[in-house]
Amino acid sequence: MSRKIIHTEKAPKAIGPYSQAIATGSMVYTAGQVGIDPSTGELVSANVEDQTRQVLKNLQNVLEAAGSGLANVVKTTVFLKDMNDFAKMNNIYAEAFGENPPARSTVAVAGLPKGALVEIEVVALLS
Q1: Closest CA to 11 of 30, 29, 36, 31
Q2: By the 8 A CB rule, do 72 and 63 touch?
Q3: DSSP code string of the chain
Q4: 123 with 74: CB under 8 angstroms?
Q5: Among 8, 69, 83, 110, which residue is least crowded by beta carbons within 10 Å?
Q6: How does pLDDT run across 1-58, given as a tens digit for each residue?
Q7: How are beta strands 73-80 and 103-108 bridged, if at all?
Q8: How many other CB atoms are found less than 10 A from the CB of residue 98?
Q9: Rounded to whole angstroms, how far apart are CA atoms 6 and 20?
Q10: What is the pLDDT of residues 85-118, one digit of tens each?
Q11: CATH classification of the domain holding 119
């Protein structure tokens, strides 16, 4: 089975030695995305709602570059700087994934790149 490196300018550039995503077989695996605006390279704001919206937009753009989309996501992992932000993140997340959301794990972490409040990675089916 081969693997294809996925890259799009519509999502932040990798800030380390990793790819935005890898497609292999019928699946695409994304790197975690934080709420960075790809046009500025900076976090969109200091609140978890705005950052979550940007994270999901970045993920959608990466998935589209791979030939997939949020509707094809089967598993997510959410990393939160503060579990007290769970409800705020969850409301935005629910808007993106609707009535048939993917499986999900959510964990609290000590820190995230660039001081982000939320990071999300996904596994999705290729269209």
Answers
A1: 36
A2: yes
A3: --EEEE--TTSPPPSSS--SEEEETTEEEEPPEESEETTTTEES-SSHHHHHHHHHHHHHHHHHHHT--GGGEEEEEEEES-GGGHHHHHHHHHHHHTTSPPEEEEEE-S--GGG-SEEEEEEEE--
A4: yes
A5: 110
A6: 899 999 999 999 998 999 999 999 999 999 999 999 999 999 999 999 999 999 999 9
A7: parallel
A8: 9
A9: 6
A10: 999 999 999 999 999 999 999 999 999 999 999 9
A11: 3.30.1330.40
**What residues contact 33, with CB distance under 8 A and at least 6 apart?**
11, 12, 55, 58, 59, 62, 119, 120, 121
Give the number of other Cβ atoms within 10 Å of residue 41's Cβ.
11
What total of structural domains would you count in the chain? 1
CB 3 within 8 A of CB 15: no
Return the closest-CA partner of residue 85 out of 43, 58, 119.
119
Spatial separation of the C-alpha atoms in residues 69 and 77, rounded to whole Å:
16
Single pTM value for the model: 0.97
